[in-house]
């Protein structure tokens, strides 16, 4: 009987999920994460009241997003990587609470993000492939205010959620927290561990829409330039899987500047992500004078082609690589900061990015997308991902992931502001 239950809990994992399961197994890609800023009313400042509120909100979030009720089991000699439906979810397995006395600052947030990315998801037969880290601040100013700022970081195994999926988690959680803060404290009681219903939907599989047999595999290479390979920093070799460390730095754009930047992009028919590529290339060309070329990578959502809403927690992402030629790199180096020439090259890069992404998106219905073709071209995912952390060269210089504008629900008193 127990064997039957074990088998019944296994769920199919698509090719992209199996790819990330292998990368996670070797410590190469540990999690996808998105942080959210929440403001909690004074009545919930008390630790017990706050935890009850959080438990209630998370219970409702799990009820809505049943994909969070799975662990990710890596490949073994006898079977492929797969999802495993959990029977229960324990509070201590998915929540980490931190308190900081000096008030909010980016250093605390940066450290929490960095440490979170270093950790692996373990014991996935009894723990889910995600967790949240909650940062609360106890300065005098915070205690005297009507609302207390709380930072919540959502970390997910990339086979469970992509960046859009992580943002969807925050949208749902904030909706339930906002709803509950308008009710009495006694109405926020919730029982944990969370009991996973026996019958929950099976996560969708991308190959059911884009069969791998109809996808033309990519010829996997390490650089398209005949003479120069892209600069990709030092070798990624790890002495052990536990020696991995991250260096996180938060770069904030004031909210008052965002509308101006987006308006600038619209008038020049470029995107904000393209602008970020150009900014980063300016930095790299000046910082790494010996490099002749760089290669960037950008994730692309497949949801418009699978019919999946942006409000769902899934991993349905492709990607596209961009090779920045020696000519472009040289042009940046030859230009003075703030000059017309620098601005010209800047816009050329952002425009080229826009055109490459547009071309890729138009081709996805027929080709399945660059990312799926990439995975289809890998004969042995396990071997490929293992070698990726022991090669002398990375395949790309950097990646820029932009989940776009995410609006969280507002209280009635805040609407219209």
TrEMBL record:
It comes from the Eukaryota. Pfam families: AATase. One of its GO terms (molecular function) is N-acetyltransferase activity. This is Alcohol acetyltransferase. The lineage of its organism: Eukaryota, Fungi, Dikarya, Ascomycota, Pezizomycotina.
């Amino acid at each position: 009987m127990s064997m039957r239950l074990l088998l019944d809990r296994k769920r199919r994992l698509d090719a992209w999920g199996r790819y990330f399961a292998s990368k996670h197994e070797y410590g190469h890609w540990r999690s996808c994460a998105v942080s959210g800023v929440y403001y909690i009313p004074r009545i919930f400042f008390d630790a017990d009241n706050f935890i009850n509120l959080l438990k209630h909100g998370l219970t409702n979030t799990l009820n809505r997003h049943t994909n969070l009720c799975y662990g990710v089991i890596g490949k073994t000699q006898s079977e492929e990587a797969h999802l495993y439906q959990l029977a229960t979810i324990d509070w201590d397995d998915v929540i980490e609470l931190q308190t900081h006395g000096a008030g909010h600052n980016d250093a605390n947030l940066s450290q929490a993000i960095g440490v979170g990315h270093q950790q692996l998801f373990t014991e996935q037969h009894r723990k889910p492939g995600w967790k949240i880290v909650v940062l609360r601040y106890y300065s005098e100013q915070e205690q005297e205010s009507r609302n207390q700022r709380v930072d919540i970081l959502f970390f997910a195994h990339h086979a469970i959620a992509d960046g859009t999926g992580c943002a969807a988690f925050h949208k749902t959680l904030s909706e339930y927290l906002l709803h509950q803060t308008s009710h009495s404290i006694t109405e926020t009681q919730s029982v944990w561990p969370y009991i996973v219903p026996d019958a929950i939907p099976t996560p969708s599989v991308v190959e059911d829409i884009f069969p791998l047999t109809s996808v033309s595999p990519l010829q996997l290479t390490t650089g398209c330039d005949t003479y120069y390979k892209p600069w990709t920093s030092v070798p990624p070799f790890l002495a052990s899987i536990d020696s991995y460390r991250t260096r996180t730095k938060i770069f904030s754009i004031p909210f008052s500047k965002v509308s101006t930047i987006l308006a600038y992009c619209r008038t020049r028919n470029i995107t904000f992500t393209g602008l970020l590529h150009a900014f980063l290339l300016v930095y790299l060309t000046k910082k790494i004078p010996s490099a002749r070329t760089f290669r960037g990578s950008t994730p692309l959502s497949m949801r418009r082609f699978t019919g999946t809403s942006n409000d769902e927690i899934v991993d349905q992402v492709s990607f596209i690589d961009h090779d920045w030629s020696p000519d472009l790199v040289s042009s940046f180096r030859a230009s003075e900061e703030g000059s017309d020439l620098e601005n010209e090259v800047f816009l050329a890069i952002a425009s080229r990015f826009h055109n490459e992404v547009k071309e890729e998106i138009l081709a996805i219905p027929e080709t399945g997308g660059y990312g799926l073709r990439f995975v289809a071209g890998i004969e042995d995912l396990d071997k490929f991902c293992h070698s990726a952390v022991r090669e002398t060269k990375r395949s790309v210089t950097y990646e820029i992931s932009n989940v776009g504008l995410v609006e969280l629900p507002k209280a009635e008193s805040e609407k219209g502001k």
